[in-house]
Write a structure and sequence with these properties.
Helix content is about 35%, strand content about 25%. It is built from three helices and eight strands; from the N terminus they run βαβββββαββα.
Length: about 140
C-alpha cells in the first residue's frame, strides 16, 4: 500500500530528468533511475526509486507522482515526507503547480503547515488502519 502525491504539469511539459534527479538528490532521496518504458495506455514513463526509504517517483503523462510506502510511524514518517516536500518545492520552481493529494481529494501547499499536518494525519490514519488487519 502506498500514499501518493501528484504534481501535474498544466501544459504537459515536465522538466528534464536531470532537473528532477537534482531536486530529489538535494532533498536527500537516493536516486536509482529505472529504465523508461511504455505504460499499458501507451504513454511513456520513467521512475526513480529510493530503496533506503521505499520512495518511488514516477513520471507519466505530464504528472510527477511521489509514492510513499505506508510503513512509517511518528518522526520517521515526518522525515520521509520532509524529503518529499523538499523535492516538490524544488520541482515547483520549474513547474508552478500545486501538489495534489488524491487521498484528501484536493491540492495542498508544501509551505502551509496546516496542509502538511493534514497529510501526515491522513497517512498515520492509513498506517493504523492497515495495522488493524495484521495478524
Amino acid at each position: 500500500m502506498i500514499y501518493e502525491l501528484h504534481l501535474n504539469a498544466l501544459d504537459g511539459q515536465l522538466p528534464p530528468i536531470t532537473t528532477l534527479i537534482k531536486a530529489l538528490t538535494e532533498a536527500g532521496i537516493a536516486c536509482q533511475p529505472q529504465p523508461a518504458g511504455t505504460a499499458d495506455g501507451g504513454a511513456d514513463y520513467f521512475s526513480i526509486g529510493d530503496s533506503a526509504h521505499g520512495l518511488e517517483v514516477t513520471v507519466i503523462d505530464g504528472v510527477i507522482s511521489f509514492s510513499v510506502p505506508v510503513t512509517y510511524h511518528g518522526q520517521a514518517a515526518r522525515e520521509v515526507f520532509d524529503m518529499v516536500w523538499k523535492a516538490a518545492r524544488y520541482v515547483q520552481t520549474v513547474i508552478p503547480t500545486p501538489l495534489f493529494d488524491p487521498q484528501l481529494g484536493h491540492p495542498i501547499s508544501v509551505d502551509n503547515a496546516f496542509d502538511i499536518e493534514k497529510v501526515l494525519m491522513a497517512y498515520a490514519g492509513l498506517v493504523r488502519h492497515l495495522q488493524s488487519f495484521e495478524l
